[in-house]
Amino acid sequence: MALKAQVERLRVRFKQRVSWLLKRRLKDMCDYDAEFGQYISLLQLKEKLPPIPPKELQIRVAGAYYPEFFKHGRDMFYDIENILKKQGLSAFNFDHILDFGCGCGRFLIPLSYLMPPGKLSGTDIDEQAIQWLQENYRCFHNLNVNGFAPPTKYADGTFDFVYSISIFTHLPEEMQHAWLKELARIIRPGGYGVFTVHGENCFHHLVRKTDRNELLEKGFFYDKGRGTDGLPEFYQTAFHTEEYIQREWTRYFEVVAIHAKGVGNHQDAVLVRNRVS
Ligand SMILES: C[S@@+](CC[C@H](N)C(=O)[O-])C[C@H]1O[C@@H](n2cnc3c(N)ncnc32)[C@H](O)[C@@H]1O
Hints:
Bound molecules: S-adenosylmethionine
Mean pLDDT: 92
Strand content: 15-25%
CATH architecture of the largest domain: 3-Layer(aba) Sandwich
Order of helices and strands: HHHHHEHEHEEHEHEEHEE
CATH class of the largest domain: Alpha Beta
Shape: globular
């Protein structure tokens, strides 16, 4: 879309969102408008606005099209950073980072402003999302489409750190085991991962008592619902108990910590460390 049309679209949306402010606090609104105009004029001098992913790709990963898409990515990245900090670690100190299940870049795009994007790679099964990122953000180390099942294209021990937000929340059990094994292969010995799951905070989503009982007995439940437009049929909703993670995930990694509601104050975050030998 031409720059002029993009600017116009942004201006209209901006004005709609602050119309209530206009009515109540006219002076603030004028300042806001001035600030907006200044940003736009600087971006016009650079002759480009940062590209934003198409609406349908955003909905595919976030379930909605809304202004805070990138802010949420950034905030959830800082949730991950806080989890690492509790162990004396920081994502900023890792040189090779993978976003496993990166979608259209809700995390990668804001992260590219926070650290050198050449440290960052992303992979996803969603060809459209990866293609869009490849065409619009050439700054990343690499962006790949992976198959539904492992392996990925990465060599053993490629990454210091892999994060995966809202992926293990959707896969059937056998696929989860296969991917945990693959992630343990591509994270270097002693490297780390943060992977999110639907923990206790989300169990109330299971309305049938029989489903909840199965989850509590087995520690894992894969709930087949309507799926997600644009994603394969296996992409459903999975739930994990902490006990299951401690029992099953330790086959592949040391489980360093499980943070209830650790990411986005919603999903549990599992911090894992790859064994050294
Ligand atoms: C809820 S979205 C989250 C995307 C991104 N992590 C975010 O938070 O914006 C789940 C993503 O997992 C991807 N996905 C599902 N199965 C996958 C697999 N086996 N390997 C890689 N990505 C997968 C989907 O294509 C989708 O982009």
